[in-house]
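note to self: dont lose this again. the chain is below, predicted strucutre after it. 657 aa total, dont forget to put it in the shared folder this time
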Amino acid sequence: MASATENIACGGFVFLNNFDSANLARVEPVRLPETFEKDVYENEGKSTNSSSSKDALDYEFNLWTKHDCHDTQFQNNNRTWFYFGVKSSRPSVSVRFNIVNLNKQVKMFSQGMCPVFKIVPGHLHWERIREKPTYTLDQRGNDFTLSFLYYTPENSKAVTYFAFTYPFSYTDLQNYLRRIDARMGKRSVMSTDDVYYHRECAIRSLEDRRLDLLTISSYHNISTEREDRLSNMFPEKSEERPYKFRDKKVIFISARVHPGETPSSFVLNGFLNFLLNREDQIATNLRRLYVFKLIPMLNPDGVAKGHYRMDTKGINLNRVYLNPSEVDHPTIYAARNLIKYYHNSYQLPSELTDDLSNINLEIMDSNVSILNSSASIANAVRDTTTRLLQQVTFMSLDEKNRCATGKKHLLPLEHLDSAAIDESEELSRESQNDNVTEVRTSDKLTCTAVDEGEIPKCSDNSGLYLYIDLHGHASKKGVFMYGNHFTDPEDTIACMLLPKLMSLNNPHFHFTSCNFAERNMYIIDKRDGMSREGSGRVAVYKTTGLIRSYTLECNYNSGRLVNVIPARIRDGVNKTMNNVFVPPKYTPAVFEAVGAALGPSILDLTGNNPNSRLPNSQYRSLRGVKSHLKLTYVSNLSAPPSKAVRKRRARRRGISG
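---
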């Protein structure tokens, strides 16, 4: 049998398997036409269609998808994802594929889930297969077989690709980011509202793939100091670190810690595209207020290998955030270090920075971290690495006065150097002794270890504002969020607010499916025996005390309901979104719209949305939403426990019934 990484020839068909995210392990023919002759099939120019009717089945194959970590010591039982191509010299023949060794997914496929396909050349866009698949479960309930029909295209040179759901591979990501790089590189920076965009490699994965980190903001409050090169991170020495920003909190969003959960990539892409929009005032306000740190693919090895849930060592990376290993879990190690770094306002203990940490704008003095003289700043600004900064027309440094008067005081370009000096004046005065340790510990929050069980209270001193890890979901319908549990009602309301606002900005977001229970923070995963305490959402809260720490989940297939979305204030009360009452099949466009809805929802949190839907909603204002959540919270506390809860309590007390 051919290697699992090679294409597989079987019964006159070629099954393509040598591309990113493909994971076909084995193919066996079940049924071939009676006229099958080996030498005929070897001649691609001949065609022997044994049936003129598509009602008759011409071919049938059993297919085995690879387990996660297939044929290694780390092989495990995750085998839901599949992705392969098929080429046949027989045009217009009917074929049945039976994928015989999948994990049990009865619930999802009983609700109408369908695999996706595309044809190259010809039908280049992914869509769900047109005929409903069937499925069977073996007597032991272990192996799930999914069967679906396929008709070969007229073009015998065409390749038809099939996947469990809409794929987005590591190669797709790299191509996508290169297109964004090219687009952003062509733009001239004309004002402080323009997009600040930076891409870098945070660390290399176990198999030497990039962990991309994107930084997006505007040029408001940009400093002349670059972020530190954290220890054992940022291996590409030719890639500079992004600039730091003053008085702008960080919003950290990541995706694809579980490789098969491709909806998360489309959600992140939707948010990224929205954030890079120079014309949208909501996107402009977001960039003006926050610095966005995006990690599009936390598990690039698992994605490239065609895994469903694990990395290449069989580890569920969304369970190791509390204590990731630089050696065994490099991408999570990097993500956690970055989260702590931004939480502590660009500060980390000295042992977590390397010898390059004090390089700022190519000034090579190892003892100086803050630019403290007019000459050094002027020289730095003129350096070629600051060419973007040189194109910026800086607004007045007196932000408060400008906002109060409503007037923009533009600073001429020729005074850029003096502006940079003024902006750094306060920091420069604090660095007279050139002792970076003293400066950092005197005016910034330093990172300290958190004892087990001790959760720091997140305050205004934190450099983080929001953390979201994006996922896909196989069983629970709709789009929803998991938040953490709090004993303080005010913290509970604060945590519930963003998900509630999402339900007002996206028709497919299910607020009633969101979960803020304590049990959901510590539940043990039956598949790997690991606790959700090590997930990104819970670990970030335990490490930083951040209330707004979430997992966003998207069902692969569809939802239970569709929200009626109120009009934006600038659209008028009469303009509402098209009311679709039957939940559609989810597509990449649906997932991307979820990502785009994060933008206005984040601004609604603080009343900074210039075109909000809140005034036209039933709640009328942010205060109205908060009041509704408080009433709901109080009523839930006073309501009698559900039957399921009563049963659990009874079992704990040893009472039956």
